[in-house]
C-alpha cells in the first residue's frame, strides 16, 4: 500500500525548564514545562510530558484523537510532571505508546513510570489508566517507526542520568527535538552535528548563554550561541530556543531572542502556541 507523504506541524506547549514558574505572571513566554507536539498526517507525536502536556491532552481528547505516541527525552520532573494529568490516558478508546530510551540502570519504560507514579509521591499509579498503553523501551541510536511513512532517529545527549534527542522524518521533511544537553565550550560536537545535518528545524536546549556556561558546568544544559553554531554547521534554517530558565523574565527572554535573531534570523524563542507548518516536499514540486 502506498502512503502519500505527510507534512509536519510542530507546536510548542511548554518551553520552560526546571520548574513551571516564571517571574512574570502571566508570561509572554509561558511557565509550562517541556512539551512539544508534531503532527504527521493523522498521527500525533508528543515529545516530553512536562506541564505543557495537560492542555495538549485536553485538546486531543476534545478532538477524539485515538492514536498517540509519546517520546520521553528523559524522566527529570520538568519533563514528566504533567504525565498523570494527560486526558487520553483515561479514555478506554485511546491507544498510547510511551517510548523511553535514556535509562542507565536497566529499567524498562514501564518500570520507570511505575517508580515515578507511586505512593507516597503520587496518590495513584499506572493502574488507573484506562487507555490501551504500550510501553516501549529502546536504546539511543535505535530507529523508531511509529507510523507508515514516519521515521524517528534517536541519539544520546550529555545530561545527568542521560537524555535522548529525536529526529522526525516524513515527506522529505525533518525536525529535531534535542533538549537537556551540555556542550563542551570550545569544542565541536561533530556527532550531534551529523545527527542534525539537513534538518528543517531544531528545537534546542538554550537554557544559558555562552557567558553563563562556566557558572553551570555539569548542570547538563547548553547555550543560545551553541544552538546557532549547530544550525550553521548543520545547514538548519530555523532554531527554536527552548528550556528557558524559570528565572528568566519576559524582558530577559525578549532581549535574548532579539540578540539571537540579529545573529541568526531563523531563531525564535519557544512559547506555548508557537507553530510551524512544513509541507511535504512533494507538494511543492511542479506536476
TrEMBL record:
Residues 45-244 form the Metallo-beta-lactamase domain. Signal peptide: none annotated. This is Phosphoribosyl 1,2-cyclic phosphodiesterase. Gene3D superfamilies: Ribonuclease Z/Hydroxyacylglutathione hydrolase-like. It holds the Pfam family Lactamase_B_2.
Amino acid at each position: 500500500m502506498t502512503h502519500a507523504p505527510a507534512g509536519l506541524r510542530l507546536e510548542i506547549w511548554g518551553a520552560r525548564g526546571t520548574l513551571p514558574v516564571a517571574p512574570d505572571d502571566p508570561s509572554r513566554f509561558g511557565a509550562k514545562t517541556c512539551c512539544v507536539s508534531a503532527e504527521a498526517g493523522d498521527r500525533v507525536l508528543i515529545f516530553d510530558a512536562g506541564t505543557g502536556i495537560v492542555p495538549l491532552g485536553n485538546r486531543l481528547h476534545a478532538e477524539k484523537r485515538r492514536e498517540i505516541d509519546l517520546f520521553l527525552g528523559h524522566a527529570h520532573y520538568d519533563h514528566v510532571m504533567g504525565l498523570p494529568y494527560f486526558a487520553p490516558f483515561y479514555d478506554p478508546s485511546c491507544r498510547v505508546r510511551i517510548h523511553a530510551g535514556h535509562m542507565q540502570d536497566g529499567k524498562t519504560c514501564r518500570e520507570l513510570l511505575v517508580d515515578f507514579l507511586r505512593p507516597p509521591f503520587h496518590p495513584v499509579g499506572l493502574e488507573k489508566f484506562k487507555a490501551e498503553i504500550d510501553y516501549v523501551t529502546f536504546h539511543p541510536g535505535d530507529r523508531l517507526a511509529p507510523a507508515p511513512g514516519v521515521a524517528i532517529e534517536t541519539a544520546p545527549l550529555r545530561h545527568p542520568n542521560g537524555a535522548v534527542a529525536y529526529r522526525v522524518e516524513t515527506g522529505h521533511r525533518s525536525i529535531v527535538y534535542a533538549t537537556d544537553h551540555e556542550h563542551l565550550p570550545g569544542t565541536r560536537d561533530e556527532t550531534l552535528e551529523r545527527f542534525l545535518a539537513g534538518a528543517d528545524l531544531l528545537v534546542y536546549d538554550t537554557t544559558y548563554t555562552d557567558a553563563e556556561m562556566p557558572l553551570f558546568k555539569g548542570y547538563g544544559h547548553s547555550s543560545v550561541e551553541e544552538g546557532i553554531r549547530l544550525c550553521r554547521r548543520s545547514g538548519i534554517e530555523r532554531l527554536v530556543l527552548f528550556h528557558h530558565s524559570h528565572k528568566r523574565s519576559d524582558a530577559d527572554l525578549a532581549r535574548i531572542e532579539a540578540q539571537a535573531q540579529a545573529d541568526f534570523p531563523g531563531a525564535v524563542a519557544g512559547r506555548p502556541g508557537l507553530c510551524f507548518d512544513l509541507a511535504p516536499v512533494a507538494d511543492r514540486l511542479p506536476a
